Amino acid sequence: MPRDDILSKFDLGVRHPALDSLRRAYATLHLSQRAPLEERSQKQLQLASVLVRHAKDNVPLYRDLYRDVEEIRSWEDFRAVPILTRDLASQAPLEDRTAEKSAPDSAPVEMVETSGTTGKKVTVLRSTRTEVWRSACKLLEYDWMGLDPRRSCASIRFDVGPNVRGYDSRLNCVVTNSWEEPLLGRLLPFGRGYVFRVGSKETVVADTLREVRPEYISATPTMLESLSSALDGPMFEIAMTIGETLYEPVRERLASHFGCRIFDTYGTREIGRIAVECPDTRNYHVHDYNVIVEILDDHGKPGNPGETGHVVLTSLHNLATPMIRYKLGDLATLGGRCPCGRTMTTIERLEGREVSRVVLRDGRKRLARHVSKALQDVEGFGPFLLRQKDYNVFELVVEEGSRGTQKDFEEARRGLSDLVEEPVTLTVTRVASLPPLPSGKRTRFVIDFTPEA
Ligand SMILES: [Zn+2]
User: Fold this and answer.
1) Ligand 1 mean position to 104 CA, how many Å?
2) pLDDT one-digit tens code per residue, 95-125
């Protein structure tokens, strides 16, 4: 059957072993979208089994952690493998988490570190194999978006500045001939890229964008929102949102302001691509060939569709620094079967960091999502920090320029009261500016007291 997808349309035809692996990985992803569930599940289990054995035999941390782990033959066996907590992943020295030996395609090629939003940085080693699969997942995402790689793309990232090669001091960004990374850049003809540093002034970014007019942009929702105050649409064809929960009102506002389509993706530096928005519905589909996503309740049991739980990830191709049943601290709601017909695992909603939960006096925790969402929904509210200082005491820190009113604050207070099931006080503090976190996130929730055990 002739294929009509991003690779068959744009492949530059360059021969190279890594590119051939990438072509094969992408073909697997593309052809398996609607394959029977059982096929995918078998493949995942087979990869997980090899991974667990490799980790137990070759990685000091797992040798210890997996003393009681036997051969993985069923999902039940897999679910009995001990969880790798974020604490453990960030505290164990990298050499203890690194394989003493692995196949050539799993030799380390690059070290990456999480942004450390939660204060716990996790470092992993990437290999040719992880990069091949990460790139293949990206290609599938681009295929779903209907993206033409030859067009140009702007992005706002943490790791660029005037000292980076290609920095254009007039445009205040790094200008590249290919907006993708080298591996994908050799496979397809990617167009020009404009990379701005997180924290660049909105007006400065806006001036450049108005001049260079990229068709695509990739940034966090918060960053796009602040950009929308300095830049009028229609502007882009597609905005790819990354790095934080995309709330529906924010999506609608961005889509209508910039006159563009919005595609939300879910990934982390330590795992790679995890899920992407379905092209036909608002569900997210998991890159099942790259990662096993489990959504577990507080007791570690798998939840049912519609239930919110802890995201636990297994990176299926990282044999250099295996990440197996890694509980990274995100919450998500498991989806049912997606009406689009794709059989990939479905996530109904991404709820963001686990810390976005308030604590009740009896120890229960509840998502503060509705409150955060309501505040983000207020036009011109700007970045904020919501802090729980005691069971019934909250502080909301906003910037001096915030257009939030007494009515908005009172609504937030009522929302918090409902959540913790008792009357609460909410004080509002105004500061000159709330600096963006390294990840670019500008809204956050923190618990600032020690709840009784
Ligand atoms: Zn779908």
Assistant:
1) 36
2) 999 999 989 999 999 999 886 555 678 999 9
